[in-house]
From TrEMBL:
Similarity comment: family membership: Belongs to the UPF0250 family.
Gene Ontology cellular-component terms listed: cytosol
Gene3D superfamilies per record: 3.30.70.260
UniProt name for this protein: UPF0250 protein FLL46_19950
InterPro entries cross-referenced by the UniProt entry: UPF0250_YbeD-like, YbeD-like_sf
Amino acid sequence: MSDIENGNDQNGNEALWQFPCQFLFKAMAQAKEGIEDEIVAIIQKHVPGDYVPKLKPSGKGNYVSVSVSFTATSKAQLDQIYLEVNELEAVKFCL
């Protein structure tokens, strides 16, 4: 069975991860009211807790960086969060 079939591709080799771990999730989105709440709601669905996102607007104010720190328990959990946050229309990309 290949590494990819095992869920261990070269770019995301699970052997490099040690769970649980503190994780800083970042997303860049259009600056629209409530986008941080939408992102936090998705994270809370997978990692319940009280989160206070850090917001950093772009120079012209058209975009905002939303950062949320939480304790991740698996790569599958992180993958699901990334997939769901990327589905938000205002989100341009996640780091």
